[in-house]
Specification:
The chain has 121 residues and is an alpha/beta fold. It contains five helices and four strands. Strand 2, helix 1 (37-40) and strand 3 (44-45) form a beta-alpha-beta unit.
């Protein structure tokens, strides 16, 4: 039996919520500037799964560092608190559409993209 691929989406938290978003989860450690809790339309804020402050600052969303960032972040996801949060996201994605939200300008090279890749299967 082949496992069904989960419906995991990736969006900026600044974009308006859409009906097909399913469960909306902010996966950044810091609350996004200029966004009220009401306007974010979140179901959860899973800040414990975000990359460490040190890793986030080192990466700085420099595209040439993304592959190394991805490697380091995947290693961090094995730590107890983050691993538990990752299991939670995987469980949610098994049963429903999940949209991971981030404040980064380019979600395709963000921690949210790494998570979407991991939990999408």
């Amino acid at each position: 039996m082949v496992a069904k691929k989960s419906d995991v989406r990736l969006r900026r938290v600044y974009e308006e919520a859409e009906p097909h978003d399913g469960t909306r989860i902010l996966v950044d450690r810091l609350w996004p500037r200029g966004v009220s809790k009401e306007s974010a339309g979140l179901d959860e804020w899973c800040k414990e799964i975000a990359p460490s402050t040190e890793l986030r600052k080192w990466y700085g969303h420099v595209p040439d560092r993304f592959n190394e960032f991805k490697r380091r972040y995947r290693a961090e996801l094995g730590e107890p608190g983050r691993a538990e949060a990752l299991d939670h996201l995987k469980a949610l994605a098994r049963d429903q559409t999940v949209t991971l939200l981030t404040a980064t300008k380019d979600p395709a090279i963000s921690g949210a993209a790494v998570l979407a890749d991991i939990i999408g299967w």
